[in-house]
């Protein structure tokens, strides 16, 4: 601050805790001192209080250091703060628990205003709780608690997983065991963690016997998967070391080995081009190679095998993972079979003398020493070998070729950059060529481009052929099978290229006429900001019961994958009649002596209509011609600017209700009409109707009333849902699915297989460790995949549900693992198909008892039985039963029980309850229609096991 005595100006300021008084006016030394004293006295401070003044020279200006003035004028804001005295620990708490060294340095600084009264450093609990960190991990095991320098002294183990996808045997985990002294590693594969104990027992027996040593310590983490190993360790004298949680370094040998093995396995797998499901073989092979490779952790970089045996390992037996080769196969008694097959080497381990070789033709892995023609680095010497491998598994070889092609493109990329400059006009032409390239010539061109990768191999490949196990030397070309049963086209373009193109054009025309006559849509200009759905043509060849062509049908559908719930649709129910309910209609038709008649609703889908409040727009479908007048009327230039807007139509349900029919609560696809004149029953399966009644007049009246939907009467049922029917007014009905079975056999390449006598036999054992089917595409009969298996099982389920109770149990067994089927499951499915081939003419009889039937004597009865502990894995039983109405079989069940029965009697009671539930459903359905059922209901059970 500045002061003045009317003659001079002087400034009093604070610097480093003291007052500096500078006189700004020009005067002598004594005058300056007098001015300072006058300034002090003017503030009411006695001059006696000034005890010491020191004259300073500061920037050529005299200043007086007045320590006493600082204390005297403290009340006037020009004094220094008082010095605070406190111990070191109190200052430590006040300043947020800073380090003691930092606090002492701050307190000792001049002008800090703090004086330490005690420098005692006590342990602070707060600092320990909130600042403590991990100690530095030792890079070398000291061996104080375990003999790490002794072979077998310490075995480190860890588990890696779950890994996706599963390998060919369903494994998801890798368990490794590493010898701390020699760095020898053994990698095991497991489906779950609990197998760690069994794998350790396996390793102990192998390692101790093979290398004449003794395992002393097993070091693992604290995971629950190793809890069961305690008993084995106590029995064998092995100590357990458990590493602390969240400290990977304490078990670092095993943790680091995971990374080493997986890095090598990934390189081997990706370089070979094999699918990811072969990662299990790559892991085991990587461990085998590491044990024979130089290790930097060992003395003089010796390999683990050399440390254990004292001998340098032989590297000549190690080949490239995935190398093609020829494998000698025992032909047995078949003298004219090939002596070798093409395969790929996938593994070699310490417990087998030979190699594990994958044979694409049979999709199996065999262990053998008899391999030759192993592929070398010179691929020109192996052209024939590669060609045969490509024929056996084209999809596998295609992935290898794509990888090689990508590598070649990367190498040539710098040279092509200058030449790949194209004008926009040329780019448009190229895109236009791609769009038109879906014709026959374009397909041939694409195939020719692919053949350039291996021209010699492709030219050497003969026509594909199909082989069966029991056909001997007989081979049926696939082309012959396709000639017998020509597949339906999958889309509009295939239909236009098909030899039956005129038939398909006529079917398309009929479908368009039906759509327009039902006022299904209207053509509008394409609205802005609206979602348009694509359409697709579905073509189907309709046949009679004897297999002859009935008609060619084309159906226009909207792509369901583009529809969103609440925007394009709300109701997702489709009328699908249950087979038990359908057979019940045939039973009542025979009781009333009025044979069931078949009705077909033409273009039923277009009569289903659109739901209320939804605006749905479609792209103009393929094959639809729009007149130029309509284009001009709507103000557009081409049909790509048009759209179809769906409008409301009629529902089948509303028409039936309007005619007085009631929908059954028990069976939603069964409608009945009961009045004084009798009863009429109608079963609905999408667009197919089954109609019967107490009199022919009622059935005729129904077809007349349904003229609003143009219902087509097909007479007495001869074919319904692919099932052939034969009616005898005295006996009843005969059902068969000959054409369905033959079509299934043709589809899956089984039309020429030899038949078997039983659908299931030695396959009762569950092959839980079997090889998984590949999950990489649609597949083929020669190389089945999961989709191929699921498609075959779906066909078998339909056949077993409709007319073949004799395969119900076999189909029940084969459907237990449809989500991840094994090769054994595929073989069982083929065996069922072979059984159907031998019994293709077998018919299912729905014959009435000799005494006759009447509506007053409707009897519902059932038969039940149980296979106690039929599943040998989980010991659960299987229930079986047959349902009969008036002595005619209407249904059957084959179900696995949800609980484990403790006795045969308990299993039988569970089966009885399941069959009884089905019987009560039939009784309730008949009662709802108004048909009386004779009581009591009969249930026939097996009393021999009670």
UniProtKB/TrEMBL annotation:
**Superkingdom as given in the UniProt entry:** Eukaryota
- Pfam families (UniProt xref): RVT_2
A molecular-function term among this protein's GO annotations: nucleic acid binding
What segment(s) does the record annotate as region Disordered? 403-469
What SUPFAM superfamilies is this protein classified in?
Ribonuclease H-like
State the Gene Ontology BP annotations.
Answer: DNA integration
Give residue ranges for domain Integrase catalytic: 143-312
Biased composition of type Basic and acidic residues is found at 403-412
Question: Which stretches does UniProt call biased (Low complexity)?
Answer: 454-464
Cite the entry's keywords alphabetically.
Answer: Hydrolase, Metal-binding
Basic residues bias: where?
Answer: 413-430
Q: What is this protein called?
A: Integrase catalytic domain-containing protein
Which organism is this protein's natural source? Phytophthora fragariae
